[in-house]
Specification:
Blueprint (H helix, E strand, L loop, with lengths): L4 H19 L4 H15 L6 E5 L5 H8 L3 E6 L2 H11 L7 E4 L13 E7 L8 H11 E12 L7 E6 L5 E7 L5 E5 L10 E5 L2 H10 L2 E7 L7 H4 L12 E8 L5
Parallel strand pairs: 1-2, 1-4, 2-3, 4-5
Antiparallel strand pairs: 5-11, 6-7, 8-9, 10-11
Organism: Methanothrix harundinacea
GO molecular function: S-adenosylmethionine-dependent methyltransferase activity
Keywords: Methyltransferase, S-adenosyl-L-methionine, Transferase
């Protein structure tokens, strides 16, 4: 079955409450792995105009706003957006929220942002190249695009841990890396989430598209779990064997034409 962006969005509408319940707070992956990279990369964001493209339940938007950024957030899932608005209601942070597709943002002006962040979003976007073109249009010259995704080299249409008879993880299975397109992503039964849709593309596809859209790659990061996780979260140490995430720090050098 060839899933579309609308299919992906609808699955996130259905899964939004379960996602928010499981991961809406201080999830260790966010707090210990990704947030430090985001804020170290962006530096002093006081007064900076930042687009949180694919904001989900608004977790990162709120953190950016609390550090003084002027935040605009876009989300395709209306249910996720409702959760973001509800979270901010008790303590308004002046985040501007829009319901929309990150590959088509005509309601946002050219060169109106200092930075764009996609925090585990692009793998859920059918038109990643359209999104990159929009980010190039929206960023001022020299602006930063921070691209965070599930690592495309290890999250392929066929993936997962191969285990022995006692359930011990032996190695990570990776296959069909060059098979671009949508595939279903299962979640753990305890999360209460139904499968979502990811759109696979290779690392080369991503980097080459960024270059063609006027970006220069400044840094590539594969976050490693801190040593404290061996005690606090031993069940999460898979990331010490195979990187779960890929971070690309990009600088806009020219506007896509």
């Amino acid at each position: 079955m060839r899933y579309t962006q609308n299919d992906s969005t609808e699955r996130w509408n259905c899964n939004a409450d379960a996602w928010h319940r499981n991961f809406g707070g201080e999830d260790p992956n966010r707090r210990d792995l990704l947030d430090p990279i985001i804020f170290e990369t962006l530096g002093d964001i006081g007064g900076k105009r930042i687009l949180d493209a694919g904001c989900g339940d608004g977790y990162l938007s709120r953190k950016l706003a609390k550090r003084g950024a002027v935040v605009t957030a876009v989300e395709c899932s209306h249910r996720m957006l409702a959760l973001a608005l509800a979270e901010e209601q008790p303590d308004p942070l002046s985040v501007t929220y829009h319901n929309g597709d990150i590959a088509s943002l005509p309601f946002l002006a050219d060169r109106s942002f200092d930075a764009v962040v996609t925090n585990n979003v692009i793998q859920d976007a059918a038109d990643f190249e359209g999104a990159f073109r929009e980010f190039s249009r929206l960023l001022q010259p020299g602006g930063i695009y921070l691209h965070i995704v599930n690592h495309p080299c290890f999250s392929t249409p066929v993936f997962g841990w191969v285990k022995d008879g006692e359930g011990k993880k032996l190695y990570r299975k990776v296959d069909r890396y060059f098979e671009r397109g949508p595939f279903l992503v299962p979640w753990s039964p305890k999360s209460g989430m139904e499968p979502t849709i990811a759109f696979h593309r290779t690392l080369g596809d991503t980097v080459n598209s960024l270059i063609s859209c006027g970006f220069r790659l400044l840094q590539l990061v594969e976050p490693e779990p801190p040593e404290s996780w061996s005690i606090l979260y031993p069940e999460r140490l898979d990331g010490a064997r195979i990187p779960d995430f890929l971070v690309l720090v990009c600088k806009k050098e020219k506007t896509y034409v």
